[in-house]
Amino acid sequence: MHEIEMFRTYIHDSVDLFSSHSSDGRFVYVSPASQYLLGFESNELLGVSIYDLCHPEDSSKIESLCDRNLPQTERIFYRIRKKEGDYIWFETTRTLLVNKKDRDGFFCISRDVTALMVAEKALKENEERYRLLVENFQDTVGIVTVDGFWIHMNNTGRKLFGVTDNKEMIGKCLFHYIHPNEKKNATNEIVQYYREATLECTLLRSDGQQKYVEIKFIPTLYRERETYQVVIRDLTERKKTEHMMQRAEQLHVVGQLAAGIAHEIRNPLTTIKGFTQLLIQDEPNKYLDVVMQEIERVEEIISDLLLLAKPPISTFEEVDMRKILNDTIKLFYSESLLHNIEIIQEIQLTNSIIKGEANKLKQVYINLIKNAIEAMPNGGKVLIKATNVNETVIITEVIDEGIGIPVDRIKRLGEPFYSTKEKGTGLGLMICDQIIKNHRGTFKVHSIENKGTIITIQLPKNMDMGKKNNLPIKRLKRKG
Question: What are phi and psi of 54, to 5 degrees?
């Protein structure tokens, strides 16, 4: 009897609601907690159907509550109306009744879980917002192990790494995609020290393209393991912009320098040249011939500088690329024989007319063929190719078998006063690049040491096309 009294006291004083119901869901017994939880006195609920208090959208859950075929300990979550008219969330555990009065009834223990349900809903909403934010973030965001292996990556990552699905990267090592020259420093910095770090490096995509990126490593726990949250920002375009700004600044400096040279050097140089010519006429001397050659070289440099300082006004008209190439090649007939150079033409142009400046384009190819010849001191072949890629683009190539250019120097080609030649100024390629850009074309260099160099120029037939047709260029194959 004592145990029964204890049980009654527990039910009477509990903040959980104890209730028994008939098979159709009507309240047969209600504990006093109903007043605290729902605002109803116990006797107010007797005979009332739980269907009447349940939210209409949750009525199917009440049906399962009344279903005797379900397990006795089944937990059901639903909304129930309070006396004031608002709803709260109930968690109800049901036990079947077996007694003389109602063998089909059931007994329930219910509690208010509104705060928990609201918190879970808010958590899910926050998780969804975070997921959408991460998935649509402009930067690559993900989780990697302390050794750099991907656990998760957002969709932006597939664009950065050049894959069709970001899931392809799961299980692969981030450090594997860092340029070999930079990998050692990256792994030493990140793997050895579990701490927040920022790294700028060159990333190699799965298709071999290079991207310059900033990687932030943020220590975090993922499923109770030490990991890094990684944020990768693509800085490639920013680097290109910075490079363009540097080039513009260089051109500005060169222009100012050229203006000064024109006034300060050209006049005395003319005087020196005149008197040297007189000395040569009076008494020919091999040393004076060398002086004369160097004076002429200085004059060429000054002319190039003045061209950069104040480019002449461009006048574009219809020009024939076939004629420009043929006329240029003829200029090198004697020089090629002297240097044991064979110039081969593969000009396959069905439509060779473009908008441009004939003299400027001719200047470009003179410079390139001259460079090709100088790159082969022991002789060789220079191949001049020209093809119509489509109705809007002409691609020309100047290919030599010369000494080639180291990879680290190719990036600097075209900078003023930087040259791979012993007596070069770097202004020639700089002017060529500028002329091609003025024609809305592209100028690309591919070279392998001791194998040769390919200069690829892409020119639109109509300058309004700009650089929309950015076609792939050929690559030299390495030996072995």
Answer: -75, 145
